[in-house]
Amino acid sequence: MRSLGAKGGRRPESLLENDNPKTRPEGCRVGLTSPPSPAFAQADALATGLCWVEVVAAVLWREDGAVLLGQRGAGTFYPGYWEFPGGKVETGETPVAALRRELAEELTLELSAAVITPWLVRPHVYEHAAVRLRFFQVWGWRGQPQPQVHAALAWQRPGAWSVAPMLPANAPVLEALRLPPRVVVTNVRNDAGSAPVGAAAWQAALARQRARLERAAEQGAFAVIVREGEDIATAQAVVHLARTLGAAEVWVNGPVTQAQALGADGVHLSAQRARRWADPEDCEAQSERRCWQQWGGRLGVSVHDAAEREVARWLVADYWLVGSVLPTATHPEATPLGWDGLAQLAAEAPAPVYAIGGLSEAHLARARAYGAHGIAAIRNW
Fold first, then answer.
1. Is the full-model pTM beyond 0.85?
2. Do 143 and 192 share a structural domain?
3. In the chain, how many domains are there?
């Protein structure tokens, strides 16, 4: 990006977005559309006379799983800092057209045949500009990256960054890139019925879960959501299994204390539980939320509609589990979102979205095309 930098460490989606065209300074231009901005970011922009600028950025994926970063050159804001390539959307230009133009100008890459999928959208207030950073994931471009505006380029593996310093606005994006594209939701207790831990039926259910995890692992990196209710012994067995088979992360759909006791990497909230966490008058839920904040594990939230999406945004969830996209055996009575419904809920998401509901590995590319980071499934592995 030639003209924009980043500074500051506040997480920009930590309040509900409420950009109001009526309160913008007279003559303020906002790029393509009014950016969904958090209350404090809007206030900062208004207080300093800044206007919102639409910016695109590319996560360019190499076949070995590395992504490309560029080092800002001398004479720019934050020289020497590393960033994702991209730049400002010009008047009348679509974000994808802007991305193609910027990557041609900055890197001499040609994207006419590339796979370009929408990913995260994150507002950020710089000292000199208030921007909406619209990230895309890109595969299959033509040409070799050649630095035209950057001082240097570097291919980096997510989670093993070796260049520094990074633009502060990139911190949550770098963290999001660590999340794998697949999530296995466990189902051992339901599958085993009332069989006690260690019984033949329970052992058979655990073996079926192992087979699903192995099939997911064959496809690539995966995470696990442990959904075993209050059955701690089964949850322990599942966590051990997930770790043994190389799960990138393990998240527990259960109390925070349970997730901590199991050595998990985070906690997953049902939509109902997430609403309680967002209710300041729910003392029990607020106590658990403080426990999670002190712990520092990841936070995932289930999302089925627009209202639940705003709860996930308000809670600053690290990922959203959005569904059901297609009909499922688990909830045959539910009306599925469909692909367009997924796109609507994933649009403008500040965190990675996992699509769930009737999906398998065969749906991964399509889910990405509709704005998802990846897919999640219970049985379809």
1. yes
2. no
3. 2
Q: Which residues contact 294 (CB under 8 A, 6 or more apart)?
A: none
Q: What is the C-alpha separation between 28 and 46, in angstroms, rounded?
A: 10
| Cα–Cα nearest to 156, from 178, 183, 127 | 178
Q: What is the pLDDT of residue 44?
A: 55
pLDDT tens, position by position, 265-292: 999 999 999 999 999 999 999 999 999 9
- Residues 154-175: tens digit of each pLDDT: 999 999 999 999 988 888 899 9
| Shared-domain flag, residues 90 and 157 | yes
Tell which of 138, 171, 204 closes a domain.
Answer: 171
Domain-located, residue 12: no
| Residues of the chain falling short of pLDDT 50 | 2-40
Residue 54 corresponds to which amino acid?
Answer: E
Residues 191 and 104 in one domain: no
Helix (H, G, I), strand (E, B) or coil at 268: strand
Same domain for 167 and 277, yes or no, is: no
Rounded Cα–Cα distance for residues 111 and 138 (Å): 9
End-to-end alpha-carbon separation of the chain, Å?
40
